[in-house]
Design goal:
Alpha-Beta Plaits; binds manganese (II) ion; four-stranded antiparallel beta sheet; elongated; 11 helices; binds phosphoenolpyruvate
């Protein structure tokens, strides 16, 4: 249910609506808008009767919403969500293109600091690096864990870049929140509903990557789990899906069509990861440029200065020089497409 308030409604009328929602044993989410305030209702068991709300003073209309993503959807909020980090110095979802870069995994303090400084110099606004790695084989490098988080914090200190890192397990929520600026939910956990609910209960922005066999509806419904718990700061990241395209051509198929589709259906920022989306170094820059041309609010790119020694995803890592070249290309695209870098 979506309750749209009259323009110029009073605070008391809004309070009346909120207590009616509470009386119906549901949860109210107030969504301020340029014209009208709306109240999205979630958590109801069974359908709610619109008549409970539409005759309340100050209510313009009550709209039954059957969508599985009523908070993530455009119906709930017309204006784009803009997520603010580092005291407003970095904004995701606005007219500035956000570039996130860094190694796949935090491997050592020297490696992370070296790469962090190089990507910062080239113009990245956020540093990435995995401390908990979701590897296909249990014998592959699993990440440095807490030591990796501490290294990310020192890289933030050295560069001023906020950091994004993956959370794999709800049991490490407190510790990851202590060190990270953005919590990443990886493709393999997109429908780990227990984890989604946990990150929904904290006040940290969340980057939700698309599962590699997920439809856009399933992805938005996964975002809804986080929003419904009360965390409004969710950004989406397209990272490629499994199709019939053979692995000799690309690791996955980067679904760039998802960018305009998501922008139409949702107000949440949409980013693209051309590194995991292709898995091959030579395809990363072309797909990054294409993602930006398609209207993505940002991109996330893996960078390594010694890819042959990388403990994960070396074949898709851009060198710092190639990353700096890509940044120059994106800067050149800005005035044509109407964004700043
Ligand atoms: C990552 O970004 O480090 C990662 C593991 O990506 P994905 O979950 O998209 O595979
Ligand atoms: Mn990786």
């Amino acid at each position: 249910m979506l309750i749209v308030m009259e323009t110029g409604h009073t605070e008391e009328q809004l309070r009346g609506v909120l207590s009616a929602v509470e009386g119906a044993k549901a949860k109210a989410h107030v969504i301020p808008g340029a014209q009208n305030t709306a109240v999205a209702v979630t958590g109801n068991v069974g359908p709610l009767d619109v008549r409970l709300f539409e005759d309340l003073p100050g209510v313009r209309e009550a709209i039954p919403v059957s969508s599985a993503y009523r908070l993530a959807g455009r119906e709930a909020r017309r204006a784009d969500t803009v997520i603010s980090l580092a005291g407003g110095k970095v904004r995701i979802g606005g007219s500035a293109l956000v570039v996130i870069a860094g190694p796949c995994a935090v491997e050592s303090e020297e490696q992370t600091l070296r790469i962090a400084k190089q990507v910062a110099r080239a113009g990245a606004r956020i540093l990435r690096g995995g401390a908990f790695k979701p590897r296909t084989s249990p014998y592959s490098f699993q990440g440095l864990g807490l030591a990796g988080l501490k290294i990310l914090a020192s890289a933030r200190q050295a560069t001023g870049l906020p950091v994004v890192t993956e959370i794999l397990d709800p049991r490490s929520l407190d510790i990851v929140c202590e060190y990270a600026d953005i919590l990443q939910i990886g493709a393999r956990n997109m429908q780990n509903f227990a984890l989604l609910k946990e990150v929904g209960r904290v006040r940290k922005p969340v980057m939700l990557k698309r599962g590699f066999s997920a439809t856009i509806e399933e992805w938005l419904a996964a975002a809804e789990y986080i929003l419904a718990e009360g965390n409004p700061d969710v950004m989406l990241c397209e990272r490629g899906i499994r199709t019939f395209v053979g692995s000799a051509r690309a690791r996955t198929t980067l679904d760039l069509n998802a960018v305009p589709v998501v922008k139409r259906r949702s107000h949440l920022p949409i980013l693209v990861d051309p590194s995991h989306g292709t898995g091959m170094r030579d395809k990363v820059a072309p797909m990054a440029r294409a993602a930006v041309a398609a209207g993505a609010h940002g991109i996330m790119v893996e960078v390594h200065d010694r890819p042959e020694e990388a403990l994960s995803d070396g074949p898709q890592a851009l060198s710092p020089e190639a990353f700096a070249r890509l940044m120059g290309e994106l800067r050149a695209m800005g005035p044509i497409l109407g964004f700043t870098v």
